[in-house]
Amino acid sequence: MTRIPVMEIFGPTIQGEGALIGRKTMFVRTAGCDYRCSWCDSAFTWDGSAKDEIKQMTAEEIWNQLYELGQDCFDHVTISGGNPALYSSIGNLVNLLKEKGIKVALETQGSKWQEWMKDVDDLTLSPKPPSSHMETDLKMLDLIVDNVKVLKNASLKVVVFDDVDFQFAIDIHERYPNIPFYLQVGNADTTLKDDDILVKNLLKKYEWLIDKTMMCPKMNDIKVLPQLHALVWGNKRGV
Amino acid sequence: MTRIPVMEIFGPTIQGEGALIGRKTMFVRTAGCDYRCSWCDSAFTWDGSAKDEIKQMTAEEIWNQLYELGQDCFDHVTISGGNPALYSSIGNLVNLLKEKGIKVALETQGSKWQEWMKDVDDLTLSPKPPSSHMETDLKMLDLIVDNVKVLKNASLKVVVFDDVDFQFAIDIHERYPNIPFYLQVGNADTTLKDDDILVKNLLKKYEWLIDKTMMCPKMNDIKVLPQLHALVWGNKRGV
Ligand code: SF4
Ligand code: SF4
């Protein structure tokens, strides 16, 4: 299949999290996910609530829309989801973007492997901790990490909501000690409309995660980050 | 001279800004600066207000204090100021830290060169924009950038308060296109005690800087960041 199910295309904006935090980028968000994380902040990509917005697009159509939105104000595109690694057709998009001189980032939980994952510039693998109620297939994650060793910019990111998640994060960091590791504060209020309260809650949770990390000798060579887009724009979509 | 004038030693905490944003680190803040930036958020290092706290310390004494505070919970030390590049004696500290297996970051505005700057792991050069009322010596900055080309992790960071600063940032980025570039929101309220208002102001300014950057085709391959420590801890010192 050569088309890609696209939920939304937006930007230029900043990457709000992980290794590229603050980076100017465009976003292509694919529809569909093989997971159902309890606290998913992109549930509209798979829960049917926005299914009328999904478009089956070719790589060229996606490029045209990216260019219409971003003109000469971008050199980087982030493919996010849902889980973009569900689709072999994204290989076309990655190739086309590289032809255009655009750098490409991919965000995926690491449950599926696609050959084109070797061709992205920045890869974020975010295995989901126990609070998601999902189970990480570590054999698959091993395979992906092994396959992308060649990439200069692969990183791991674990969202942490509680102590059990933190232990999961330690285990992942110890399993792949050579992959740059990012801890991220979870957003438990993905439907909250009051931005002031949201920011207060998120910064409080961030401080909690910083404190835990600072006292943990197994978590020295790591970064702890909030989601900047949630601090700036709250739970709004498409920013 | 073998001693280093130290203002404060603290951590472990996170690096709140720039290329290492979110990184677990210890801080060694030196006293003294050759600049007098109008909005300096570390003015206590040079304005005399905390001069009784300054200690002349050897590298060994600094290491002992770092270890007492951080034990086995750190593998990274950030040397900040003031301007640490005033002191040739910091070479001893850099060497000692590297012997201990600790990674070393340096933050300086780029007004002075020291040979030991070649030995740090992470170097942040932050030339000051016009709103600081300081004038950047571009010849010196050229020399430093040229000298540290060998470093894997050198970056430029420019604080932006207004449109004139933004143009300065563009000029710096265009002068050194191959050095990773960071835009940072200025904190105009360095004495404000009300953290809620501070956070609101900082996030508003951050959004302003994001918007400006997104519309600027000369600022594509860059990152725009806030100061995380100011969001989490306000204007408190030593965090
Ligand atoms: S993997 Fe990501 S998109 Fe899928 S359910 Fe979990 S959080 Fe949502
Ligand atoms: S260079 Fe840094 S420490 Fe020195 S006055 Fe300016 S902001 Fe303050």
Automatic annotation (TrEMBL), chains A, B:
<dbReference type="InterPro" id="IPR007197">
    <property type="entry name" value="rSAM"/>
</dbReference>
<feature type="binding site">
    <location>
        <begin position="39"/>
        <end position="41"/>
    </location>
    <ligand>
        <name>S-adenosyl-L-methionine</name>
    </ligand>
</feature>
<feature type="binding site">
    <location>
        <position position="80"/>
    </location>
    <ligand>
        <name>substrate</name>
    </ligand>
</feature>
<dbReference type="InterPro" id="IPR017742">
    <property type="entry name" value="Deazaguanine_synth"/>
</dbReference>
<feature type="binding site">
    <location>
        <begin position="14"/>
        <end position="16"/>
    </location>
    <ligand>
        <name>substrate</name>
    </ligand>
</feature>
<dbReference type="GO" id="GO:1904047">
    <property type="term" value="F:S-adenosyl-L-methionine binding"/>
</dbReference>
<dbReference type="GO" id="GO:0016840">
    <property type="term" value="F:carbon-nitrogen lyase activity"/>
</dbReference>
<comment type="subunit">
    <text>Homodimer.</text>
</comment>
<keyword id="KW-0479">Metal-binding</keyword>
<keyword id="KW-0949">S-adenosyl-L-methionine</keyword>
<dbReference type="Pfam" id="PF04055">
    <property type="entry name" value="Radical_SAM"/>
</dbReference>
<keyword id="KW-0411">Iron-sulfur</keyword>
<dbReference type="GO" id="GO:0000287">
    <property type="term" value="F:magnesium ion binding"/>
</dbReference>
<feature type="binding site">
    <location>
        <position position="33"/>
    </location>
    <ligand>
        <name>[4Fe-4S] cluster</name>
    </ligand>
</feature>
<comment type="pathway">
    <text>Purine metabolism; 7-cyano-7-deazaguanine biosynthesis.</text>
</comment>
<keyword id="KW-0408">Iron</keyword>
<keyword id="KW-0671">Queuosine biosynthesis</keyword>
<feature type="binding site">
    <location>
        <position position="37"/>
    </location>
    <ligand>
        <name>[4Fe-4S] cluster</name>
    </ligand>
</feature>
<feature type="binding site">
    <location>
        <position position="82"/>
    </location>
    <ligand>
        <name>S-adenosyl-L-methionine</name>
    </ligand>
</feature>
<feature type="domain" description="Radical SAM core">
    <location>
        <begin position="20"/>
        <end position="235"/>
    </location>
</feature>
<dbReference type="InterPro" id="IPR013785">
    <property type="entry name" value="Aldolase_TIM"/>
</dbReference>
<feature type="binding site">
    <location>
        <position position="42"/>
    </location>
    <ligand>
        <name>Mg(2+)</name>
    </ligand>
</feature>
<comment type="similarity">
    <text>Belongs to the radical SAM superfamily. 7-carboxy-7-deazaguanine synthase family.</text>
</comment>
<dbReference type="InterPro" id="IPR058240">
    <property type="entry name" value="rSAM_sf"/>
</dbReference>
<protein>
    <recommendedName>
        <fullName>7-carboxy-7-deazaguanine synthase</fullName>
        <ecNumber>4.3.99.3</ecNumber>
    </recommendedName>
</protein>
<dbReference type="InterPro" id="IPR024924">
    <property type="entry name" value="7-CO-7-deazaguanine_synth-like"/>
</dbReference>
<feature type="binding site">
    <location>
        <position position="40"/>
    </location>
    <ligand>
        <name>[4Fe-4S] cluster</name>
    </ligand>
</feature>
<feature type="binding site">
    <location>
        <position position="29"/>
    </location>
    <ligand>
        <name>substrate</name>
    </ligand>
</feature>
<feature type="binding site">
    <location>
        <begin position="126"/>
        <end position="128"/>
    </location>
    <ligand>
        <name>S-adenosyl-L-methionine</name>
    </ligand>
</feature>
<keyword id="KW-0456">Lyase</keyword>
<dbReference type="GO" id="GO:0051539">
    <property type="term" value="F:4 iron, 4 sulfur cluster binding"/>
</dbReference>
<keyword id="KW-0004">4Fe-4S</keyword>
<dbReference type="GO" id="GO:0008616">
    <property type="term" value="P:tRNA queuosine(34) biosynthetic process"/>
</dbReference>
<keyword id="KW-0460">Magnesium</keyword>
<comment type="function">
    <text>Catalyzes the complex heterocyclic radical-mediated conversion of 6-carboxy-5,6,7,8-tetrahydropterin (CPH4) to 7-carboxy-7-deazaguanine (CDG), a step common to the biosynthetic pathways of all 7-deazapurine-containing compounds.</text>
</comment>
